[in-house]
Amino acid sequence: MDERCHLLEQADRCRRIAEDIDEPSMAAALRGLAEEYARKAEALPQPDQTPEATEASASDPAQERALAILREFEDARVKLVGRGVILTDGKAGTIDRVFLDELHGLRISLEGHEGNWPISTVKLSEV
Fold first, then answer.
1. What is the pTM of this model?
2. 68 φ/ψ angles, rounded to the nearest 5 degrees
3. Which of 13, 28, 56, 100 is least buried, going by the fewest C-beta atoms within 10 A?
4. Cα distances (angstroms) measured from residue 11 to each of 8, 32, 39, 101
5. What is the pLDDT along the chain (127 residues), one digit of tens a residue?
6. What residue numbers bound the domain in which 34 lies?
């Protein structure tokens, strides 16, 4: 296994562990560690790329923007899945999935309720 794959696996592992931890500071530290692993992996050339090709692709503004969106989406997913919420239409439940919809932006689905809703209709419950 190359170093890049190893770092990405470690990042995924940290994210999975952070999801299962109830201690907010520890979960945040693990998410930070996951981001550090991911940044290190992104800095390494892919196995089929030369260093010159990696530098060219890393400087592409569209790719940088896409990566930033994906990072924010992953951060939102980690923070929201499992949280109790109340929707503006009166439905309440636990967020079980987070979606990224190109027309509507961030959307969620609730356990026990069919459908998905925009994040703007959500109020997080205080626990």
1. 0.49
2. -65, -40
3. 56
4. 5, 9, 9, 25
5. 578 888 888 888 888 888 877 777 777 888 888 888 888 888 888 766 555 554 545 557 877 887 788 888 888 888 889 999 998 888 899 999 988 877 778 889 999 888 888 888 888 776 5
6. 3-75
